[in-house]
Amino acid sequence: MAGAGRGSDVTRPPTQGRAWRPPRHQAPSLPLDVVLAIAARTDEPTLVRCAATCADARRRLADDDPANLRARLRLRHADGRFVLPLLRGDLVHVHDSYRRTSDMYMVDARRMRRVTTGGVPLASRDGLLLLRMAKELRVCDPATGRSQAIPLPPESLPVDVRYGKYVLLVGGDGGDDEDDDGGAGAILGQPFQVLLADIELSQHRRYLRFQTFSPARRAWSRCTEIRTPNLQGSRLQQGLGKALVVGGAVHWLCLADTGAYALKLHVRAAQVTVTMLPDSVPHNQYSWWHEPLLATSSAGGSPVVLAVYGNKILAWAQSKQTAKWKPQPQVVVEAEAMLWFLDGAGGTRPSVWTRLELQLEWFAERSGAVLIRMSHEHFFWLDLQSMEIIRWFSDSKIGYGSQHWPYEMNLSDWVPTFNTSTV
Q: The DUF7595 domain covers which part of the protein (predicted)?
């Protein structure tokens, strides 16, 4: 019996308490520094998920020296995935001519706060903002507080300074090479160019004109004129819309007296491609019904045209074989779905006396989000990849005359804020 008792102590589980299990052999875990080093060499979504695992991971990243951090961040392409957390909010410029006030607000997921920039926003891209000041332009990084002044384009330039459209080109978007950025990399952390473009359309002249400014040259370039014979008509009804920068090219929409067009400009090659939009995109001979917007349904993907039609948002895609725009659009979201989201979030529906009019404000290229205005003061963030509403905001201070720009934080600037950001 004694032998049996000794044997039972070794081979049998105890009869009381939790069931006995044989001991597990845990594999040794990697040190956190090694995990972070691996994540910094993968892609944006992986790094974001790594930072979201625990406060210690965020603290280690935040305590890193910014110069070392930027040197480590050699991320691969995001593999067609948008990174929604890089969208920090909606930058709103509210100008009240009656009260002679001009205010700037940042709207994020929880609040609307006044910000001080001292200028009027003209463009935003990849964490940088282009502002028009009283006597100069300024490219700034709100995350770090750094900025760089550039001269206003002289009015003698061929490009119409009053009606031309500004575009920020950052890094591989067509800007200067990193080793020839004229100090821009040292100040803002990444090279950039400023592009100013317009269209000349008449009975005898059809040109896209553009000029660029880069810190390497410290001056505006000569005007480049590119013929656009496929842009038919003799009169421009609506000039260049908001730019989309994707695949190393700049894309715009415009409206002539013969129809609606999409333009694609390769800046370095100075080449322009013009395609005509189908008649199903809502417009008449003189104006858009509601100004459409260019976007992409995946990071770095082909452009799509978004437009409001009645109480829904539609999307027109391009054929990969012919590059022609498909005549039949796809429904992206309807106003009723936005109202259901509003009900579920505890919001108040617009008054029955208010038309449920929709308007497209912007598309965030790194995050894949679209800002949609409903009626007077309701704003919805749409994830274009999933075609679902992800958040909403409302404030009476935002009037119809306000201007909206997406503010997406550059990843190397955003990582040091992990310890104070909601991830």
A: 121-389
